């Protein structure tokens, strides 16, 4: 009987926030907060929760085949104007919805007690029609790591890990999220500029 080897520390970042350290300043991930949805021996995946895509939910619905043009619903302004996030550089044309526990579709995956993930067009349709989850964060693309890659980035001091706050996951004020999270953790953003851990 063979035993599947699980990398040490596997799963330790699941359901956590990764906060980009100053050394990431020149990359896509500069000043990002990533909510980690999965972490195991095969790698990790999550979503940047503080980077707007420059489009609204209404734009997204109009650009996809969720509805035919004739059947576009009359969305509430708050839903239509909700910003679509830039979840990461992988699969950037695919939509993902992190949402509250009050919605559960056939392919909904629980990440924590308060955050669930669904990536079907059905959830977009439900949100547009006002029948979706009470709280949600819609993203295009995700952030992914291969086996051991995230662990190596942690050793390189690329990320700070913090307990995730579902309120911040769903918060639509992307501009101030990074500073607010650092302050809540007792870190002054202005002091968070030196490259930590390297003499």
Order of helices and strands: EEEEHHEEEEHEHEHH
Assign an overall shape: globular
Percentage of residues in DSSP E strands: 25-35%
Low-confidence stretches: 1-9
The percent range for helix content is 10-25%
Summed up, the helix count is 6
Overall SS class: alpha+beta
Distance between the termini: 47 Å
The mean pLDDT is: 87
Question: How would you describe this structure to a colleague?
Answer:
The chain has helices at residues 57-63, 77-80, 121-128, 149-155, 166-170, 174-184, and strands spanning 16-20, 33-40, 43-48, 52-56, 83-86, 90-99, 109-110, 116-118, 136-145, 159-163. The chain is α+β, with helices and mostly antiparallel strands. Strands 1, 2, 3, 4, 5, 6, 7, 8, 9 and 10 form a ten-stranded mixed beta sheet that branches. The radius of gyration is 18 Å and the shape is globular.
What's the helix and strand layout?
Layout: E1 16-20, E2 33-40, E3 43-48, E4 52-56, H1 57-63, H2 77-80, E5 83-86, E6 90-99, E7 109-110, E8 116-118, H3 121-128, E9 136-145, H4 149-155, E10 159-163, H5 166-170, H6 174-184
Question: What is this structure, in a nutshell?
Answer:
This protein has six helices and ten strands. It is α+β, with helices and mostly antiparallel strands.
Keywords:
alpha+beta; disordered N terminus
